[in-house]
Automatic annotation (TrEMBL):
GO terms for biological process: regulation of transcription by RNA polymerase II. Keywords: Cyclin. Signal peptide: none annotated. The keyword Disulfide bond does not apply. Residues 125-220 form the Cyclin-like domain. The keyword Cell wall biogenesis/degradation does not apply. Belongs to the cyclin family. This is Cyclin-like domain-containing protein. InterPro entries: Cyclin-like_dom, Cyclin-like_sf, Cyclin/Ssn8, Cyclin_N. One of its GO terms (molecular function) is cyclin-dependent protein serine/threonine kinase regulator activity.
């Protein structure tokens, strides 16, 4: 019912425990999650809780046969569904255990885990650079597209669906869902200008058709469960309690915002809720900037109970590891020039629409 604690609970961590999530005016009982045997409880503001219930109700009302409707009558003790296939993957199960993230369809089809991780990073780079080219914002459009991209490859292989087309389909769909739509032809123009070596030889009309086609596959894969919760708003909300001046808070949030952007290159969004990611990367910013926020060491207990320092450190190291890896990859996979639609001159080849 509420997507704030909607992880696909690792069946090795959780065996049907219930947890009470406190709101301002109501009690809501949701399955807890466990990491190394420790229950993690997320405290939900009532207003946010109601907004998510409204969005869920709206999605349910749009389709009489929506698979989400099954959740309304499901017993509280219903077993956690198997996640080996798309058909058994319910709408609330958009988070996986670390072991499951390593056992993707691409890996089972013979791709190395390192190569799959590299293709994921390249796909996110395509989304970010082309998204910037069409003036899309990190929150919500680019962030949503990145989550779509990572989720998609938990069900499909890179061998069957090349990352360059999936990335553009995710960006196109995310624009619609986040109410910041971008014309498909503008995405094509930006893509061919930003990455001519990847997209430059594609026929424009065929390129548009391919994006439309992959969008349909995305919709079917996610069964139209398209609302994505991102860490950005939580950075703002949590930082308000810090005993700092407004400029100091803004500076800290700015640094954390950059970390959240870069976390899209990792698979953290497949493993942890956005609240957990927000806490971890705020903690990383506080550590890097050596700021005294005037709160207890575990300041996040007000929002997420039983979240250990070791877990936060693990999340932070995932982002820091990306920085180490990206130093070697940037030379091989970066756009040749910055491009912003309406400001940068369009390359003649892209304007002419070369044949494929």
């Amino acid at each position: 019912m509420c997507s704030l604690v909607n992880r696909a609970v690792d069946r090795r961590w959780h065996s049907g425990d219930r947890v009470k999530v406190v709101t301002e005016k109501c009690w809501n009982f949701l399955p807890t999650t466990r990491f190394a045997g420790v229950a993690i409880v997320i405290h939900v503001p009532c207003s946010q809780h109601m907004k998510q219930l409204q969005r869920a109700a709206l999605r349910l009302s749009c389709s009489s046969d929506n698979p989400l409707s099954q959740l309304q009558s499901a017993p509280e003790t219903a077993p956690i569904p198997e996640m080996s296939s798309l058909s058994s993957h319910t709408m609330r199960d958009w988070l996986w255990s670390p072991e499951e993230v390593k056992d993707t369809p691409s890996v089972r089809a013979g791709m190395s885990l390192a190569n799959e991780a590299k293709l994921r990073r390249e796909g996110i780079r395509l989304i970010m650079e082309v998204g910037t080219g069409v003036r899309a914002k990190a929150w919500p459009t680019i962030g949503t597209a990145a989550v779509y991209f990572h989720r998609f490859y938990m069900f499909h292989t890179f061998q069957e669906f090349p990352r360059e087309m999936t990335a553009m389909g995710c960006l196109f769909l995310a624009g619609k869902v986040s109410e910041t739509p971008k014309k498909c032809k503008d995405i094509v123009t930006a893509a061919q200008n930003v990455f001519p070596s990847v997209y430059g030889q594609k026929n424009r009309n065929a390129f548009v058709d391919e994006i439309m086609g992959i969008e349909r596959v995305l919709l079917q894969t996610m069964k139209f469960d398209l609302q994505v919760d991102l860490p950005y708003q939580y950075l703002i909300d949590y930082s308000k309690k810090f005993k700092l001046t407004k400029p100091e808070i803004n500076s800290l949030v700015h640094t954390s915002w950059t970390f959240v952007n870069d976390s899209s290159f990792t698979v953290l969004c497949l493993i942890w809720e956005p609240q957990v990611i927000a806490v971890a990367l705020l903690h990383l910013s506080i550590t890097v900037r050596k700021v005294n926020i005037g709160l207890p060491e575990c300041w996040w207990d007000e929002y997420i109970a039983n979240l250990s320092n070791s877990l936060i450190d693990d999340i932070c190291h995932k982002v820091l590891d990306f920085y180490s890896i990206s130093k070697e990859e940037k030379m091989d996979f970066m756009p040749p020039r910055p491009f912003v639609l309406g400001q940068t001159p369009i390359m003649p080849a892209a304007a002419a629409g070369p044949s494929s």
